Amino acid sequence: MLRNVPPSYTVAPNMTGRERVTADAAERGLDIEIVERIQARSLEEAASILGIAPSSIVKSLVVKRSDDTFLFALVPGDRQIAWAKLRAVVGVNKLQLPSAEVALANTGYERGTITPLGSTTAWPVFADSRIVGQRLTLGAGEHGLSAFVDADALIAAYDATVADITDELQPRT
User: Fold this and answer.
1) Among candidates 88, 134, 144, which has minimal Cα distance to 113?
2) Mean per-residue pLDDT for 23-44?
3) Coil, helix or strand for 64?
């Protein structure tokens, strides 16, 4: 059964990101633990604050297809999207990261808080194979929050496609 469908709970205009994440997780039968932390300026700083390795933080990246539809790519914090691999898995010849404004408009979340959980639109989820079997953390809908979750349960809850979609993180030039 595909579970990557819009949630049936009502997203009230005054719902916080945390409330949307929590409601969606509950609807999907997904156990999550939301942890408050001081705001971090980088993924590495967030990992240090949480006492975990950067690879245990999963970046939920919004990716735009050429037909103006989107998908989520779940990428370990110490890796980056391998565009050729992701294009092959998705079966398209063009993908790109949208602007922060477009990502916000299509998920309801600012960068650094994005998660498939509670997103205003349910997009397909593609998860890097390295997260399988891990307890990980990802955005929780608001700055200063992290959601801990079992990766296998998250993958199952979204009927996510699991594949090798990343490469080692390259230094920015």
Assistant:
1) 144
2) 93
3) strand
Q: Which of 8, 28, 29, 11 is CA-nearest to residue 20?
A: 11
d(CA 24, CA 58): 18
Residue ranges of alpha helices (H) inside the chain are 17-27, 43-50, 83-90, 100-107, 151-157
**Going from the N-terminus, what domains does the chain have, and what CATH number goes with each?**
34-168 (3.90.960.10)
Distance of CA 162 to the CA centre of its chain: 13
Beta carbons of 140 and 107 less than 8 angstroms apart: no
At 63-76, the pLDDT tens digits run 999 999 999 999 99
**HSE, side-chain direction, 13 A CA sphere, residue 97:** 11
Q: What is the mean pLDDT of residues 150-173?
A: 93
Residue 35 has pLDDT above 50, yes or no: yes
Q: What is the mean pLDDT of the chain?
A: 91
Distance (Å, rounded) from C-alpha 125 to C-alpha 142?
Answer: 20
